Amino acid sequence: MIALTFTDYWFVIIPALYNLLTILISLVEVVIIIRASFKKEKTTFKSSFYQIFAVDTVLRITEAVCFFMNCRMEIAPMFHEYFASLVETYNFWTQLVPILMYYTAFACQWMNLVLTFNRFTVFWMKAKYAVFWKRHTLRITIIALVIPLAPTIPMWTECFAIYLDEWNFVSWDHKIHPAWSNSDSAMAMFVPSAFPALVMNLWMTAKLVGSSSVAAKATRSDKRLWVLTLSMFLFNLLTTTVQFLFNIEIVAANYLLVMHAQTIFFDLTVLLPSWVILWTSASFRSEVVFVTTFGKVHLAESEFLQPTAHSMGSVSAGTALI
C-alpha cells in the first residue's frame, strides 16, 4: 500500500475542518433561535427574519454534509478503497444523498427569496411589517419548501449509483444521464426565484445607498441584514451560473477548473451566511459566544429588544444592539 502524505488529501481535510466548524456554529445559532421562540420575552431572535434564517441554516447544513459525501469523499485517496468496494452499488442510500443535496440547494434558492422579501418589507411596509410576517411566516416558508419538490421527486426515477466512470475513477452520479439534467433543474428553480429577488435587492440598494433620508432612518441592524441577504443572493447567482456551465460542451475541456470554481462558490454560498449573521447583531453574537464558551464569556449587551425610534415604525424589524 502506498503511503499517503498530507498533499494527497489536503483538499478533503481542510474543507472537512472548516465545514465541521461552520456546522457546529450553525447548530448553535439554530438552537438559540429555537430557544428564543419559547421565551415569553420579546427578544430580537423571535423575529420572522431569524425564524426563516434558522430554516435556511438547517437546509444549508444538510446541503454541506451531502455535498461533502457525494462530491468530496469519493475522490479522496483516504476513502478510495472504501468507495472502490462499493463500485456498482445502487440502492436507496445512493439515491438519497445526491437527491437530498439537490433538494436543499433548490430550497435554499427559494429561502433566499423569502429572506430578501422579508428585508424588502421592512422598508416597504414600514409599521405593517411585523403584523404581516406574524400572520404569514409559516405559510410563506412552507411554500418555499414545497416548490423545490417539483424537480426533486422525479429524480427518484433516475439512477444514482457508485460506479467506475470512463476514466476509471470512482464516481457517485447518474449511471444513466437523463435528458433533463440537474443543471437544467437548478436554472429552472433559480430564474423564477432570482428575478424578484434581484428587483427587490436593486430597490433596497437604491433606497439605502441612493436615498439619504431612508439610509439615515434605517438601523444598523437592518442595513447589515440587508447586506447579508444581498451577499447570499450574489453567491447563489455565481454558484448556479457555474452549475449551468456544465451544460456547455466547451466546458468539458476545462471540467476540473470549472469544478474547482463551483466548489469554492458552493462553500461561500452554503457556509458564509452562518458567519455573516454574527456580524449583523452584537446581541446574537453574544449569545453564540456564551453558548460556545459554555457560559464563560458573555458580552455585556442586552438580548432584549429596546424601544427605538425606528424610522419604519417596525417594532420587530430584526433590530439589535450593534
From TrEMBL:
One of its GO terms (cellular component) is membrane. One of its GO terms (molecular function) is transmembrane signaling receptor activity. Keywords: Membrane, Transmembrane, Transmembrane helix. The keyword GTP-binding does not apply. The chain crosses the membrane at residues 12-36, 90-117, 138-164, 184-204, 225-246, 252-278. Pfam families: Srg. It is found in: Membrane. InterPro entries: 7TM_GPCR_serpentine_rcpt_Srg, Nematode_SR-like. Its main location: membrane. It is a multi-pass membrane protein. GO terms for biological process: sensory perception of chemical stimulus. It comes from the Eukaryota. Belongs to the nematode receptor-like protein srg family. This is Serpentine receptor class gamma.
